Amino acid sequence: MDKLGKWRGGASYGPILSQTDLYLLRCELELHPILVGKNAAFHLVFSLVTGQATGFNQDARDRDLPFSQKDEPATVPRVKQLIIITEHTPWCTVVTNENGVTLNDICVQMYRDYTNTITSAEFTSLPPRVQDQIKRSSAHNIQNSNAAAGGWPNGGGYYPPTPIAPVSSDQLKRYDWLRDRVFFEAMRKDDAYAVSRLGFKAPNIFVLDLSG
User: 37: phi > 0 → left, psi -120 to 50 → alpha, else beta; which?
Assistant: First the structure.
């Protein structure tokens, strides 16, 4: 009997399947309860803008919870690779770990991918109205980042907000594309959407939902 629980962290706990193993075995993967939003004691609060990952609990609203489960496996059975897509962007995030993909691996790789710069071709493929929205989002993100780095001047107090400077297209990050949907909500299986996006489906392809 497994007295430790199937989500316990550690490289030697259970099989770790490769992409080939998944195709041969045709096994379904179970996502960690935190990834599907079914852990009542811990709701993941992860920002693609800052990379910060903490937790929230209705019974502890006065404080952030540490992400102590970060080294637990993302799926059971454990896998060496996960592919994550979202309906909000055209990109695909591939998360790899030879010892089994963990919750922390997902957060780290998502943050790395979404801090990449939007290419000129990607940006110009959008309608002008959406381009303007992304530029405004970028300007706000830059301003918030500068404010967080600098803190309150002169030790505190209220100061009028400074005007938001224009942003050039070569400054735009992938998280700016998301506009206000920059927080992790949940992951789910959607084979039909995977086929429409990638041309194929696989047990380790999941769709990421985001919220503001």
Answer: left
